[in-house]
Amino acid sequence: MFTSFSTALSALNATATAVDVVGNNLANLNTPGFKTNVVYFRDLVTQSLGAGLGETQVGFGTARPLTIRQFTQGAIQSSTGLLDAAVQGDGFFVTKNAQGNTLYTRAGNFQVDDAGNLKTNTGERVQGWTSLDSSTGVLDTNGAIGDIVVPVGAAKQPVASNQFTLDLNLNSSVAADVTSKFSSAIKLYDSLGSTHVLTVHFQKTAPSQWAYNVSIPGEEISGGTAGTPFDILGASGELTFGSDGLLTSPAPGSPIGFDIPGLSTGAADMRLDWNPYTTNNTARITQFGQPSAPSASSQNGSAAAQLIRVGLADGGKMLAQYSDGQQVIVGQVAMAGVRNPESLIAAGNNNYQVSARTATPAVGLPNQGGRGDIVGGAIESSTVDIAREFTQLIVLQRGYQANSRVITTVDELSQETINLKR
Predict the structure, then answer these.
(1) Pairing state between β 270-274 and 163-171
(2) pLDDT tens track of the chain, all 422 residues?
């Protein structure tokens, strides 16, 4: 009978711990990326009474309960934050604190400091890749992860045009004289980002044959005359079409190349390739019985531009948007997959750290190697179910009251036992 004191006290201690866990869950009802803790009770070793082999067993109460964090998926809610992101599926964002320790989090409400470092709202530096491949200019995600540093107020360097295309039709019905003249213009950029408008002139010289030449405004080139087009040396020739109206000469794989030296802007000389065919060798220029008209044009240069904003897109890509409308990938957020996430230890500020029982985290790109995906412009909500927690709180309260009653009853029985000798 007297072991009931310790038995009931163990239950009071365990129940108090469980109430603390429920209270912590409810306190984090609105914490982004928070995962609910669940309490599991366990009994203590029992004692056998009498001479039998376990016919009468009395336990010693309950041990300190186990708390296990359940890493279930939280609801993905849209957000207005440009740098907000949510993990959909398994995995964690990788961060580093001020001491250089690696931490893991599901909370994706990020921000950028004055130096351009991408950080959590509690100051941990988000890890990923920002290095560009020197040969391709594409973001290199094969190296080690590091702090993500995004450009802050930086101007985008201009890119000089070196290729352009024109999609157009030349009217096969016109006469082979000056009445067939037709021209199409295209805007290109030099190494300083200044624009130059080239005009490509066409004139029919014979059936299925057209002469072409390219000019630039005279004031934009040394030796030119303002207000007078300057014919570019080497940018002239003949176009020949077949009976089906498709271009036959120049042949596929033979782009028309020419140079533009002595630009008045002081930029480097331009070397341009005009390819009259698509990548699958389909002619861009046709000669059909329709009015001469352009349908499309393209070139690969761009002017200098100011950074407008930086945002985090789907897949964890950091996109920088510039004033010319271009978007450039400037970073990639890394993800870590953990096979047994319930073994992680909460480190505060929505972060977790590995324990001795944690499998080695596998760090890599989202949506690969069993890792989940990253949803841009969203936040993962807490997994706390308020109705479930309130129900659990009522059950724990009743359990605490019941065990308190056990102690009161055992105390009364003890007093009765003591009074027997009087």
Answers:
(1) parallel
(2) 567 778 888 889 999 999 999 999 999 999 999 999 999 998 887 665 565 565 667 777 888 899 999 999 999 999 999 999 999 999 999 999 999 999 999 999 999 998 889 999 999 999 999 987 755 667 888 889 999 998 877 778 899 999 999 999 999 999 999 999 999 999 999 999 999 999 999 999 999 999 999 999 999 998 889 999 999 999 999 999 999 999 999 999 989 999 999 999 999 999 999 999 999 999 999 999 999 999 999 999 988 998 888 999 999 999 988 888 888 888 999 999 999 999 999 999 999 999 999 999 999 999 999 999 999 999 999 999 999 999 999 999 999 999 899 888 888 888 878 888 76
Determine the distance from the C-alpha atom of residue 338 to the mean position of all C-alpha atoms in its chain, rounded to a whole number.
Answer: 20
Eight-class DSSP state of 271:
E
Amino acid occupying residue 364: G
Which is it for strands 362-364 and 345-348: parallel, antiparallel or unpaired?
unpaired
Mark 290-300 as b/e (b = at least 16 C-beta within 10 Å): eebebeebebe
Tokens coding 328: 């450039």
Listed in sequence order, the residues at least 6 apart from 163 whose beta carbon sits closer than 8 Å to its beta carbon are 255, 272, 273, 274, 275, 299, 300
Whether 33 and 350 have beta carbons less than 8 Å apart is answered as yes
Helix (H, G, I), strand (E, B) or coil at 214: strand
Evaluate whether 144 touches 268 at the Cβ level (below 8 Å).
Answer: no
Token reading at 358: 């944690």
Judge contact between 63 and 10, C-beta under 8 A: yes
Which DSSP symbol is given to 23?
H
Bridge partners of 86, per DSSP, are: 375
Residues 6+ apart with CB under 8 A from 99: none
C-alpha–C-alpha distance, residues 351 and 203, integer Å: 70
Question: Tokens in use for 53?
Answer: 């082999």
Cα radius of gyration rounded to whole Å, the chain: 37
Asked whether the beta carbons of 291 and 171 are under 8 A apart, the reply is yes
In whole angstroms, give the CA distance from residue 304 to residue 322: 9
Please state whether the predicted TM-score (pTM) of the whole model is above 0.85: no
By three-state DSSP, how is residue 413 classified? Answer: helix
Domains contained in the chain, CATH given: 3-71+382-419 (no CATH), 83-155+307-380 (no CATH), 163-299 (2.60.98.20)
Task: Using alpha carbons, list the distances in angstroms from residue 399 to 7, 392, 403, 408, 412.
Answer: 13, 11, 6, 14, 20
Measured in Å, how far apart are the chain's first and last C-alpha atoms? 21
